Fold this protein.
Amino acid sequence: MDATTDKDPLVQEQIYNALCYLGESEPEEILNSCDEYLRQHDKLAYPHRVIILKAMETVVKNNIALLDKSTAKEVIRDWQQAASDVLVAVGQRFINKVMEEALTKFQPGILPHYFVMQTFANLSVSNGE
């Protein structure tokens, strides 16, 4: 997975494809490996983190019926945290666009998801003056 940091888009695509391919035969193993890698590399730049997150998304979508409930729950929590972190990182430069997109998650009469609120809080802290 270290090759995700390669600047060549073809290499990045190959890593994504390899993770998805391996995820077809061993979805839980790949999801756990991706999760562990993201935890160990918490400073990984967001474009590279996105490659791994997209691969995780594809593996989950393609194998949802095969996943153990506890694995799915853990992956979803970690995935949401990682996605929130990506939005906060992007928001350090493009705060207006991130806020515009995040605000679409608010609907009258419905409590917003925990990670939407956490993302707003982290955006405010990272962009505070």
Q: What stands out?
A: The mean pLDDT is 85. Helices lie at 9-25, 27-40, 46-63, 69-91, 95-103, 114-126. The two ends are 36 Å apart (CA to CA). Residues 1-67 form one domain.
